Amino acid sequence: MQSAGYIEVFMSTHLPVEECTPAIKKFPSSSGQMFQGYFTSEHEENYKKRDLIDARARRLFENTALACSLDAYPFQAQLSSRSGPEVVMDGHRMLMLSSYDYLGLIGDPRVDEAAIAAVRKYGTGTGGVRLLTGTLDIHQEMEAALAEFKGTEAAITFTSGYAANLAVISALLGPADRVIADTLSHRSLMDACRLAGVQVQRFNHNDPASLRYQLENGPEANRTLIISDGVFSMDGDIACLPELIALKKEFGCFLLMDESHASGVLGQHGWGTDEHFDVPTDEIDIWTGSLAKAIPSNGGFVAVSQRLAIFLQHAAAPFIFSGAMAAPAAAAVCETLKILKDSGCTASGY
Q1: pLDDT tens across 213-230, in order?
Q2: 108-133, pLDDT tens digit by residue?
Q3: Angle, alpha carbons 229-178-300 (nearest 5°)
Q4: Secondary structure of the chain in HEC code, one letter for each residue
Q5: What is the pLDDT of residue 302?
Q6: Is 171 a residue whose pLDDT tops 60?
Q7: Above 80 in pLDDT, residue 62?
Q8: Predicted confidence band at 3 (pLDDT cuts at 50, 70, 90)?
Q9: Which residues contact 190 (CB under 8 A, 6 or more apart)?
Q10: What class, spelled out in words, does domain 109-342 have in CATH?
């Protein structure tokens, strides 16, 4: 049962099941109130090819309007609490079943205090890009800790995992190269390929035979980079890493693994996909990942050889032209890595 502007959902009480009567709670927003009445008022919608919003947007607006009219718009729900097992939405406590906080460290007092101390010491911003005046000592501490955690010579960080993928692919590759990517690779990786202008082929999800076919039948290229997520964001399945490594070696390619959903999760110590399969870290040429999932902060990383890190510091546009990660975020990363290390999560001696 629904009423205008609200969607009704059932929330159980803390009583035993046999004594529990579902309570109906109403939540504003599903009817699109966040759009300030845009979809409940009359609009003359034009989608001409010379308009700023052209015909490609028609389906987006029609579907959004339909969802709002049915009190079923599912996105951008506003929370008024930190993320965790329970959250507060519109004054009601709800179970959170859709969070990246894989280790439950959002709100951990140790992480919070590290971020607060960083604000007091460094302030809320850096005042520059990393290549010029934005590099703080805590950035270098964070990158050293990330390299140790991942078991690589070096790491370089960016303001998001999305930016990390854009940075490394656009800095390294061009139209004379090619990328062969798993069909379920993250959107940021595909956008990076578009930015680089690199030739792109896709292989069937987690299918080494399909990858082999693409390797054997693709266009000529100077270099070939195979791309896969470690853990795929939509279904949570794990990449066939040993097979990817074998094909990379056979065909003389390079391999990039996006560990955004694997770091802190896979392997006995949480090192990621390589530990899960017990393969040496340096079998993979480029590791990328997010610092906003199991690690409860913001940013992204690229873990690579020292030589490649130096190159990216001077060739990756997001490192050169984007404001540096704020100190509180870097401090949260450092503290989380200390927590993981104290729990046995470190790639030292791997």
Answers
A1: 999 998 999 999 999 999
A2: 999 999 999 999 999 999 999 999 99
A3: 35
A4: CCECCEEEEEECCCCCHHHCCCEEEEEECCCCHHHCCHHHCCCCCCCCCCCCCCHHHHHHHHHHHHHHHCCCCCCCCCCCCCCCCEEEECCEEEECCCCCCCCCCCCCHHHHHHHHHHHHHHCCCCCCECCCCCCCHHHHHHHHHHHHHHCCCEEEEECCHHHHHHHHHHHHCCCCCEEEEECCCCHHHHHHHHHHCCEEEEECCCCHHHHHHHHHHCCCCCCEEEEEECECCCCCCECCHHHHHHHHHHHCCEEEEECCCCCCCCCCCCCCHHHHHCCCHHHCCEEEEECCCCCCCCCEEEEECHHHHHHHHHHCHHHHHCECCCHHHHHHHHHHHHHHHHCCCCCCCC
A5: 98
A6: yes
A7: yes
A8: very low
A9: 181, 200
A10: alpha beta
Q: What is the pLDDT of residue 347?
A: 42
**Rounded Cα–Cα distance for residues 32 and 270 (Å):** 40
The one-letter amino acid code at 299 reads G
Do 164 and 289 contact (CB within 8 A), yes or no?
yes
Question: Domain locations in the chain?
Answer: 6-95, 109-342
What is the token pair recorded at 34? Answer: 């966040």
How far is residue 226's CA from residue 180's CA, in Å, rounded to a whole number?
A: 5
Q: Which two tokens stand for residue 137?
A: 């000592």
User: Alpha-carbon distance 88 to 18, whole Å?
Assistant: 26
Q: Look at phi and psi of residue 36 and say left if phi exceeds 0, alpha if psi is from -120 to 50, else beta.
A: left
pLDDT of residue 343: 81
* Residue 169, both tokens: 């692919």
Contact 198, 177 (CB under 8 A): yes
* Sequence-distant (≥ 6) Cβ neighbours of residue 89 within 8 angstroms: 27, 77, 78, 79, 80
Spatial separation of the C-alpha atoms in residues 123 and 10, rounded to whole Å = 44
Q: Cα–Cα distance between 338 and 345 in angstroms, integer?
A: 9
For the chain, give the mean pLDDT: 89
